[in-house]
Specification:
single chain; alpha+beta; about 20% strand; disordered N terminus
Length: about 220
């Protein structure tokens, strides 16, 4: 039932009801707006099947080191316990291994200090790899960011993995499916949604004018 709108009554008049009035009416009938496992809905007042809170992450957190090939539209990566120069170098080596022909590679990275170590610079110079860093506080400009939204949507949202091992398995299962179905309509829709979110959040259109001045 839409709120703020109205519908024609039998006598021809339009009955209007606000969202708050609707909430009170449903609450008197024992119906509230809840967040069960698969989205949001109106449900009877009891104990809905909720996801557990994550205020205390006793297993710690993991970081996904992702790599994306623009030309091949391929996404891959690994979970790590922390961000470090060692893990960054390992990711760069995986990118180089994907193109063993020695062709020059241009890799876009954010300005994290772990991406700029002496060992990384030395390896990049010896392996025909050029690091292209995004401006400070502008990691959102990296094209890979649009692919993290679908990854979160299909592997983390509404999930309750018992441990990091199971979460990592789900993540890599998605990566395998995604690379096989890169043009799937659900993947494309999630990517468009994430790009729109990024543009809205930063109030800028890539390669164009800001949203405030665009016509």
């Amino acid at each position: 039932m839409p709120y703020g709108g109205g519908r024609a009554a039998p006598h021809g008049r339009v009955i209007r009801i606000s969202r708050e009035a609707l909430r009170c009416l449903l609450a008197r009938g024992g119906v509230t707006f809840q967040r069960p496992r698969r989205g949001r809905s109106w449900a009877a007042q009891k104990h809905p099947d909720r996801l557990p809170a994550t205020y205390h992450r006793t297993h710690g957190v993991r970081y996904f080191h992702g790599c994306y090939s623009v030309g091949d539209d391929r996404l891959w990566g690994v979970d790590r316990r922390k961000k470090s120069a060692v893990n960054t170098l390992a990711a760069l080596k995986s990118i180089r291994a994907a193109r063993p022909d020695g062709a020059p590679l241009h890799v876009i990275l954010d300005n994290l200090s772990a991406h700029k170590g002496a060992d990384i610079r030395r390896w990049a110079k010896n392996n025909n790899v050029e690091s292209c860093f995004t401006p400070t506080y502008a990691s959102w400009a990296n094209p890979i960011e649009a692919h993290f939204g679908p990854l979160r949507q299909f592997t983390i949202v509404n999930s309750n993995h018992p441990n990091h091992t199971m979460q990592t398995r789900a993540l890599h299962a998605y990566l395998r499916w995604r690379n096989t179905n890169a043009r799937h309509r659900d993947v494309l829709a999630a990517e468009r949604k994430e790009r729109a979110r990024i543009r809205s959040e930063k109030c800028i259109r890539w390669g164009g004018r800001t949203l405030a001045t665009a016509t």
